[in-house]
Amino acid sequence: MSVAIIDYGSGNLHSAAKAFERAARSMENPQKVFVTSDPDQAYGADRLVLPGVGAFADCRRGLDAVNGMVEAVNEAVRVKARPMLGICVGMQLFATRGKEHVITQGLNWIGGDVEKITPRDESLKIPHMGWNTLDVLREHPVLERLPLGPKGQHAYFVHSYHLNAANEADVLARADYGGPVTAIVAKDTVIGTQFHPEKSQRFGLALISNFLRWKP
Amino acid sequence: MFKVRVIPCLDVKDGRVVKGVNFVDLRDAGDPVEAAIAYDAAGADELTFLDITATHENRGIMLDVVRRTAEACFMPVTVGGGVREVNDIKTLLRAGADKVSINSAAVSRREFVKEAAEKFGGQCVVVAIDAKRVKRAGGGERWEIFTHGGRNSTGIDAIEYAQEVVSLGAGEILLTSMDRDGTRQGFDIPLTRAIADSVPVPVIASGGVGNLDHLVDGIRDGHATAVLAASIFHFGEFTIREAKEHMARRGLPMRMDA
User: Fold this and answer.
1) What's the CA gap between B207 and A166, in Å, rounded?
2) Domain of A13: which CATH number?
3) Domains of chain B by range and CATH?
4) B232/B208 Cα distance (integer angstroms)
């Protein structure tokens, strides 16, 4: 089994790779984790991870700049039904469109737009930066055995935009930040977290382990 | 529920923690990576490394510290000190830092903040502001930006400067009172509040923490989103857990996962 972390020039892949390696090591069937910008390697992997930090349009441009990568991930997910995890802007790229500064087309796997978060409480700062609890809307194998909810564990967020899903059923979990913020989306074999599991200590590693075990 | 962050800060010189850390049984009290691992286990919400290495040749050592920390700690890490150009940010982020803090380079060239935010996103650009009270010409006081550890005055108003760097894309402000730093008398609350209330991004209060009530004051009265402290944690006076429990007892929302 192999896990491809897709390198398209967006930020901090080292810590994502290390977190996946750590989670993979502690599993019954070790999986090989590698960082790649080669579409063939991504296409051939058993699981894919799409990280991403920065602005939506920049990330989309970066993904497009890797010749053949968009086609490779589309095929891997839509035809071969490979499990794929998107993180932060990587997750936002699953949407139909991004509306950060300019309108940019997403991969359109999860219907909806990526929009600015607008907390009702004006003393709340943007970006939404720090630790928040998650309210789970429906069950999912990747959330199995994770103590979530208002008294549960926390996830680390850093973002100013979120995926406003067109279909409520695609939203797995929300956080509250002066109003609902989309925290996890999932549909078919894709799952995306607005927060950073690779930065969310024990909870994050447990979620990554669940993703590595997930057989959709 | 969204929680308040408690952030220990480690001063690192030539790859070693300045003055050491003696809050737990570390094999090597001077190893920043060991200290980071201990803080991670203790439930710190983030970690900040401040690289005070003087020579350019020894900067590479910090990258190694960051890289080894990222291999062992799955928590957000900010690195400051000596961040002068876009390439410095790129190498730190590539090594595993999540945010970088820019200090004097932003004072001397504001455009640097914009370049950094455009290239890497404002979420990873922290601007560190060192401010000090000065007498106004016409009476009264204001806060000015100081550089070189508080020695050099710039004449720049701290509130205006904070607003300017945020408009250029800074995603967070790390605010240190040079009057309070090292005094253990608590944060400069009027300064913290003045800055926090005038920018839309999170403000981390820093400088002067001597007891756990000071942490509470920084959030409740200073309107900061996070608090940063060094010596009260490093020298074993209080654990991160004790700090968070104290803040929770005073009604602040704290993360107690670890």
Assistant:
1) 46
2) 3.40.50.880
3) 5-249 (3.20.20.70)
4) 10
Mutate to test the interface with B, among A15, A198, A209 (most CBs of B within 10 A): A15
**Helix residue ranges per DSSP H, A45-106:** 56-65, 69-74, 89-92
- As for how many domains chain A has, the answer is 1
Q: What angle do CA B88, B92, B94 make, to 5 degrees?
A: 115
Establish if B121 touches chain A: CB-CB under 8 angstroms: yes
Active site residue B11: yes
Q: Do B74 and A22 touch (CB under 8 A)?
A: yes
B130: annotated active-site residue: yes
Q: What is the pLDDT of residues A117-173, one digit of tens each?
A: 999 998 899 999 999 999 999 999 999 999 999 999 999 999 999 999 999 999 999
A/B interface, count of CB pairs below 8 Å: 109
SS3 B113: helix
Instruction: Check residues B55 and B101 and name the one with the higher pLDDT.
Output: B101
Q: Which residue, among B227, B242, B233, has the nearest Cα to B3 in the 3D structure?
A: B227
Q: How far is A80 from chain B (nearest CA, A)?
A: 31
What pLDDT is recorded for position B59?
Answer: 81
Angstrom distance (rounded) from CA B49 to CA B51: 6
Selecting from A127, A131, A204 the residue whose C-beta is nearest the C-beta of B255 gives A131
Distances, alpha carbon B119 to alpha carbons A40, A57, A154, B179, B228, in Å: 28, 12, 29, 34, 27
User: Quick check: A62 and A8 in contact, CB under 8 A?
Assistant: yes
User: Are B172 and A198 in contact (CB < 8 Å)?
Assistant: no
Query: Quick check: B29 pLDDT over 80?
Result: no
Q: Which domain holds residue A95?
A: 2-213
Q: What is the ipTM of this complex?
A: 0.94
Mean pLDDT rounded to a whole number for chain A: 95
**pTM across the whole model:** 0.96
What is the 8-class DSSP label of residue A75? I
Long-range CB pairs of A58-61, under 8 A, 24+ apart, other chains included? A58/A10, A58/B121, A59/A8, A59/A10, A59/A89, A59/A90, A59/A92, A59/A93, A60/A93, A60/A98, A60/A104, A60/A105, A60/A106
| Band of residue B229 on the pLDDT scale cut at 50, 70, 90 | very high
Residues A54 and A65: their CA atoms lie apart, in Å, by: 16
**B 20-79 near A (Cβ less than 8 A):** 40, 45, 67, 70-71, 74-76
According to DSSP, the residues that pair with B16 across neighbouring strands are B13
In the prediction, which pLDDT does A14 show? Answer: 82
